[in-house]
Amino acid sequence: MSTDVVLQARGLTKHYGHVVALDNCDFDLRAGEILAVIGDNGAGKSTLIKALTGAVIPDSGEITLKGEPVHFRSALDARRAGIETVYQELGVAPALDITQNLYLGREQRRKGLLGTVFRKLDKAAMRQGSARQMADLGIRVQSIRQKVDTLSGGQRQAVAVARVAAWATSVVIMDEPTAALGVRETNQVLRLIERVRENGLPVVLISHNMPNVWEVADRIHIHRLGRRIALVEPGSTTMEEAVAVMTGAKQPEALA
Amino acid sequence: MTSAPPRETEAVLLQKEDRAGPWRTALSSQTAGPLAALVLAVVIFSATTDSFLNPGNLSLIAQQSVVVGTLALGQTLVILTAGIDLSNGAIMVLASVVIGNLATDGNVFGALLAGLAVCLVLGLLNGVLVSQFSLPPFIVTLGVLSVLTAAARLYTDSQSYPINSEFLTALNGGPTFGGVTITYGVMLWIGLTAILGYALTQTAWGVRVYAVGDNPRAAALTGIKVKRVLLSVYLTAAVVYAFAAWQALGRTPTADPSGYSTANLDSITAVVIGGTSLFGGRGGVVGTLIGALIVTVLANGLTQAGIDSLYQQVATGILVVIAVAVDHFVRTRQTR
Amino acid sequence: MRINRVAAAGLAAGIFLTATACGSDDSDSSSGGGSGNSDVTIGIVELNLSNPFFGTLQKATEAAATAKGWKTMKAEAKVPGDSATQVTAIENMIANKVKAIVLDPANPTALNPVVKKARDQGILVITVNATLTPIEGADATFATDNTEAGKLIGQWAKASAPANPRIAMLDFDLSDGPAGGRHNGFLEGYGIKDGDPSIAGTALTKGTIETGQSAMENLLSAHPDINVVYTINEPVARGANTALKNKGLADKATVVSVDGACSGVQDVKDGIIGATAMQFPSKMGQLAVEAIDKYLADGTKPTAGLNDSGTTLITDKPVDGLESQTSEWGLQNCWGEK
Q: Do residues C135 and C104 both lie within one domain?
C-alpha cells in the first residue's frame, strides 16, 4: 500500500461567533486507504468535511491536494479538483433511470451537429459508460435502464456511490452512507466501499457505526472538540478504547 | 465476494436494456394508460352514435383540442418541476386581447410579437418569484391569475375585439384531404409536442427538468443549477402560451377577455389525465396531448349521444381521480 | 401604452365621479323625490363584471344614485353563480347601515337569508336582472321578463322557420333563473315542449364565444341538418355562427338570441343573428334608484314582484303579427360598447 498523502489539512480553524467548530485541526488521507472519521455529535466532524469539500471556508489553516495547496471557495471547486461526496440522504432522483442518475449534471452530447445544434444526448455512450461503472463496482441490477425507484434502498445508495466513484479523480467522501439502510443493505454498501478502494480511489468514511468502521477502515481519525485527537489503526485499538477517547472518558495518550 | 467477472456483467446489463427496445419504452411509460382510455372512449362513441366516427368529426375533435391542448403543453413543463401554473389561461387571454387590440391598427405581425412579449414578461415574473424567491408556485400563479383577470377586463373594458386579419386567424386554415381539413393549428400543436418531447427526452435540459422536479436536493448536489432550470421552464412555458394565444385567435376569431376562464384548470386536467404526476418528475408531453384529446372526445361524444353535458364533467372528474390514484399507486409501490 | 391610456381614463373617470358627487353635496340638488343628501348610502351588488351586461347595469345604477347625491358601496360576484361573495358583501353593507341594496342575485335561493336579515333592519332590497325564489323575498324586482324575451324569439323563429325545422338549443346552466326563463319561453313561443322531435339537440355553454362555438360544432357533427339555433346570449350566437360558417352552413341556419348588446345588434344588422330580444339594463338600474328615492322620501315601497323593464324584439326581417324594431333602432338603444 502506498503511503503517499493525497489530501492533507494543517491547522484548520473555523469560528461561528464564539463557537469554535474547528480548532487547529489536522487531517491526513493516504492513497489507496479507507480512512474512517469518528466522533461524538457536535465534535465538528461535519464542519471538517465541509471544509474539505468547499462547503465551508475555514478562517485559517491549509489544505493540500496531492501536495498542491488548494483554496476551495465552493463545493463546485472541490468537485472540479476531483473530490466527490456521498450523503446520508439518498442523493438520487428516483424517477430517473440508473444511467441518467450516473450522468446527472454531466450529460454527454452527441458529436457533430446533432450535439452542438440540436443538443442531442449520446444515450448509447452513457449507457455503455454506466454499464461499465456498475460492472466495475460489482453492483447487481437487472438493467442500467431500470428506474431508480424500482431499486432497493441499498441498490439506490449503490447508485449514488457509483455516481461519485465515476466522477471522483482524487478522493471519495462518504457522509454516513449506511445510516438509512438495513443490515443486509449496509453490507452491500460496505463491500462497495472496499471495491472503490480496490479500484484505486481513497475513501473518507464518516460513520457512527463502530463495527462497520472496524470492518472496513484502514485507519481511524478520532475527532473531538473540533480537532483530531487521535489517529489509530483498527488492528491495534479496540472499539471500546476508541469510544472512550472519542467521548473524553480516556486520554488519547493512553492508547497504544 | 467475487461474483461473475465484471466484463460479463457489463455485457448482461447492456444486453437486457437492448432487449427492452423502443417499443417497451413507448408502452411501459405513462402514456399507455391514457392511450388505452382514449381508444376506449373512441370505440364506445363510435359504437353508440352514427356521427362520431367520421373523418370530419375526428378533425373537429383535434381542432377543439388545440387551445387548451397547447396551454397544457406549457403546463406539463411546470408540473414536471413539481409546480403548477394557475395563470396560464389568463396569460393567454391577456396576450390575445393585446394582440386583438393592437391588430386593429393593421400591424398584425407587430401585434403578435407584442402578445409574445406579454407572455414572456409574465412568464419571467412567475419564474423569478418561484425560483429566486422560492415562493410556492400555487400561490404565485394564483396571485398572477387574479391580477391578470382584472387587467384583461380593465384593458378591454370587458369588450371583445373581432379579428379580421388573415394572418392572425391563419391557424384555422389548412390543407383539405377528401373534405377533411387538417388545420395549421393542429399541425402546430403536434409540432410543439414533438419539439418539447425531444427537448425533454433527448437533451440534458430535459433530464435536468425531470431531476429538479423529482428530487431538487439531489439535483443541486450533482451541481445542477436548480433555480436556473426552474426559470427556464417558466419562460419556455410562456412561449408555449403565446402560441396558445395565436391558436385561440385562429379558432375563434374574437379576442374575448371573458373567454377561457377555466382554461387553467382544463389544462391541468389534460396534464393529469395524460399521466403526468402532480408531484413532479414523471410524465411527458405526449401523454398530455392524449389527455387533451380525451377531454375533448368526452365533450364531443356525449353531446352527440344526446347526453346532458353535465355528465361530461362527471366523466372527466372520474378520469382525473383514476389518473391521480394510478400515480399514487406507482409512487408508493416503488418507494420502499 | 394602451394600458396606460386605459388606466389614465379610469383615473380621470374616478376624479370626474368624485367631483360630481361633491358637486351634488354642495348644491344639494335633489331630483324629484327630495331625498338627495350625502348621508344616504346604497349598496350595489352585481354579478361577475367580466360580462359587460352586468357592468352596464352597475354603472347605470351607480350613475343614477350619484345623481341623487348618494354614496354607493359596490361589490360583485367573482364568477357566475358566486353567491358566497355576494352574501359577504351584503353583510358588510348591513354593518355599514346602507339605506337600500340593489342586488343582482347570483342564485335564486342562496341569498334569501341574508336578504331577510337586511330587510329586518329596515333596508330596502331591490333585485335587478334576476329574481329570488320566492320573488317576494325582495321588496321588488326590476328585470327583463326573460320568459317573455324567450317567447318573442320563439314566436319569430316559428314564423320564419323552414318547413322541416331542426332546432339546436345552446343553453346556459338551467338552474340560473334567466337562462331557464329564456329556454322555456322560447319553447312556449315556438309552441313545442322539451323533447319535441324537431329539437335536434341541446348543449350547455358557459355563455361565452368559445364555448358556444364548441357546443355548436359538436351538435353539427351529429346533426348537420340543423337550421334553427336558439342561443342563450349573443356571445354564444357569435360562436355558433363561427361554427356554422366553418361548415359552410351559415346561410342555411337561422340564429336567435337574447341580450341587445350593441355588438349583438350589429350582428343582427350583419345577418349573423336573425332576431334578438333586447334587454334594458340601464333602465333596470334607473328604475331601482327611482323606487329607492320614493321610499326614502315618503316610505312608499315599490310594487312587489316583477316589474318588467321591457323587452323589444330586434330584427331586420319582421314577421306579421309580431311587434319588432329594426337593427337601426336597436343601435340607437343598445347597451355596452358600440
A: yes
Total domains, chain A: 1
Supply the range of the domain harboring residue C134: 39-144+295-304
**Out of C2, C51, C242, closest to residue B258 by CB:** C51
Q: Which stretches of chain C sit within 8 Å of chain B by CB?
A: 2-3, 6-7, 10, 49-52, 55, 79, 201, 203-204, 206, 208-210, 213-215, 217-219, 221-223, 235, 238-239, 242, 246, 263, 336-337
Domain count across chain C: 3
Residues C138 and C58 in one domain: yes
Domains in chain B (CATH in brackets) are 29-331 (1.10.3470)
Does the complex come out with an ipTM higher than 0.90? no
Contacts of A86 in chain B (CB under 8 A): none
Report, as an integer, the average pLDDT of A9-37: 93
Contact C259, C280 (CB under 8 A): no
Burial classification of residue B190, based on how many CB atoms lie within 10 Å of its CB (0-12 exposed, 13-18 middle, 19 or more buried): middle
Cβ contact, residue pair A134, B217, below 8 Å: no
* Mean pLDDT, residues A197-219: 94
| Residue C289 predicted with pLDDT over 50 | yes
Same domain membership, residue C196 and residue C113: no
Closest by Cα among A229, A233, A253 to A24: A229
Looking at residues B172-189, what average pLDDT do you find?
91
Q: Within this chain, do residues C157 and C257 fall inside the same structural domain, yes or no? A: yes
Helices (H), A11-86: 45-52, 75-80
CATH number at residue A246: 3.40.50.300
C79 and C201 fall within a common domain: no
Read off the CATH number of the domain in which C162 is found: 3.40.50.2300
Q: What is the pLDDT of residue C80?
A: 80
Q: What is the CA radius of gyration of chain A?
A: 19
A contacts of B6 (beta carbons < 8 Å): 135-136, 138
Residues C213, C121, single domain; the answer is no
Most confident residue range from A2-6, A241-245, B102-106? A241-245
For C185-204, write each residue's pLDDT tens digit.
Answer: 999 999 999 999 999 999 99
Mutate to test the interface with B, among C209, C267, C270 (most CBs of B within 10 A): C209
Q: Which domain holds residue A152?
A: 5-254
| Chain A positions touching chain B (beta carbons under 8 Å) | 75-76, 79, 85, 87, 89-96, 100, 103-107, 109, 118-121, 127-128, 131-132, 134-136, 138, 140-145, 147, 149-150, 152-153, 163, 191
Residue C300 within a domain: yes
Q: What is the 3-state secondary structure (H, E, C) of chain B?
A: CCCCCHHHHHHHHHHHHHHHHHHHHHHHCCCHHHHHHHHHHHHHHHHHCCCCCCHHHHHHHHHHHHHHHHHHHHHHHHHHCCCCCCCHHHHHHHHHHHHHHHHCCCCHHHHHHHHHHHHHHHHHHHHHHHHCCCCCHHHHHHHHHHHHHHHHHHHHCCCCEECCCCCCCHHHCCCEECCEECCHHHHHHHHHHHHHHHHHHHCHHHHHHHHHHHCHHHHHHCCCCHHHHHHHHHHHHHHHHHHHHHHHHHHCCEECCCCCCCHHHHHHHHHHHCCCCCCCCCCCHHHHHHHHHHHHHHHHHHHHCCCCCHHHHHHHHHHHHHHHHHHHHHHHHHCC
Look at residue C289 and tell me if it is in a domain.
Answer: no
Chain B interface mutation, best of C58, C221, C226, C272, highest count of B Cβ atoms under 10 Å: C221
Query: What average pLDDT does this structure show over C128-157?
Result: 94
C51 and C96 within one domain: yes
Q: Do C238 and C322 have their domain in common?
A: yes
Look up the pTM and report it: 0.85
For residue C157, being part of any structural domain is answered with: yes
Alpha-carbon distance A170 to C307, whole Å? 89
